[in-house]
Amino acid sequence: MHRTVRTFHRTFGKNREDFVGKTVAEVWGQTKFEAELKPKFDLCFSGKVFKEEDSFVIAGGERRYYAVTYYPYKQDKKEVTHVIVVTRDITERKNADSALRKSEEELRKSNIEKDKYLKIINHDLDRASDYVKSLLPPFIENEYFKINWKIVSSSRLGGDSFGYHWIDEYNLALYILDVTGHGVGAALHSIAALNTLKYQTLTNTDFKNPGQVLAGLNNAFQMSDHNSLFITMWYCVFNVARYELRCAGAAHPPIILIKPSCEVERIKSQNTIVGYDHEIEFQSSTLKIEKNWCFYLYTDGAYEIELQAGKTMEIDDLVEFLCNNEKEDSSEIDALYQYLKQSNMSDANLDDDFTMIKLKLL
């Protein structure tokens, strides 16, 4: 009783005499008692418990929140003779609930804004992806060769790109690039290098000389000037008059050459990455070629997947697959992609961009 009086005294700033010996109506006022409190007491006197949450302005003008429970008190004869009112201060909980609701509302508004901007970003990424696809050349077939390819980015925009075009009536340039990383930065870097090759914008460069082309790219795309991005690649020139292939590789996976009866050669890169050092001299090599030979140029996403038992697919496995599945219509490239997706233990989607070009001599 004394503790309750002290609590009321502290909360409402009144004296002991303002509570002890007084009726509820005298403490709270007749109007409040009749309108708000008496119905609750009547319910308790009928034997029921009543619960509510309410707020009061306490001494000092602060509004506090309380959970109030009215309990019927029964004597030995099971008759309700008193009502016990238990009041708990729940202001902190109410404030926390209010802060949570405010936070949820702000989060909802933020998500609406986020979704709006994500929609814009995704739209722009789709347009950028369409632009990248527009740069890729169509399949080609003539009296000398046919070229087929497949490219699938692991994200909307990837660092892989390739192209081919006639330098003159006898020389076809064929190139594939892989920029380190993924996403917008790698894609923009790859597109810039691709357009440099496609439109032959390097100065003092013989585009029929693969070593000179890599040296020109190396000077134009130094890592120190391009956010530490570097390029691995092949640049090849096929001369249809001499049936000769000149090529220069920059730390790229080897070109796979499959001859009739599945005789395989691997043409290895002669040079380091593009963008590392201004002083590097890039080398190229020349190969006499024959009809019915197949050349596969690809990025590491065409074979580097995690297989069962912790094994990683290697180039030997890729060579075996291509030898066993090579088709006149080049459908082995699609078959390889499906095989990689099905065999990849880490994810149903590939972790890296998949790019492969097939040059079949006729």
Q: What structural keywords apply?
A:
Beta-Lactamase, six-stranded antiparallel β-sheet, 362 residues, five-stranded antiparallel β-sheet, alpha+beta, single chain, Phosphatase 2c, domain 1, elongated
Would you summarize the structure shown here?
The protein has helices spanning 2-12, 24-28, 30-45, 91-135, 183-198, 210-220, 315-325, 332-343; strands at residues 50-57, 63-74, 80-89, 140-141, 145-152, 160-166, 171-179, 231-239, 244-250, 255-259, 263-267, 285-288, 294-298, 354-361.
List the helices and strands and how they pair.
Blueprint: H1 2-12, H2 24-28, H3 30-45, E1 50-57, E2 63-74, E3 80-89, H4 91-135, E4 140-141, E5 145-152, E6 160-166, E7 171-179, H5 183-198, H6 210-220, E8 231-239, E9 244-250, E10 255-259, E11 263-267, E12 285-288, E13 294-298, H7 315-325, H8 332-343, E14 354-361
Antiparallel strand pairs: 1-2, 2-3, 4-5, 5-14, 6-7, 7-8, 8-9, 9-12, 10-11, 10-13, 13-14
Uncertain parts: none
Helix proportion: 25-40%
What structural category characterises the helix and strand content?
alpha+beta
- State Rg: 39 Å
Shape: elongated
Distance between the termini: 106 Å
The run of helices and strands is HHHEEEHEEEEHHEEEEEEHHE
Q: Give the strand content.
A: 25-35%
What is the CATH topology descriptor of the largest domain? Phosphatase 2c, domain 1
Q: What's the level 1 CATH class of the largest domain?
A: Alpha Beta
Rounded mean pLDDT is 87
The second-level CATH architecture of the largest domain is 4-Layer Sandwich
* Number of helical regions: 8
Number of domains: 3
Strand line-up of the largest beta sheet: 4-5-14-13-10-11
Q: What is the H level of CATH, i.e. the homologous superfamily of the largest domain?
A: PPM-type phosphatase domain
Tally of strands: 14
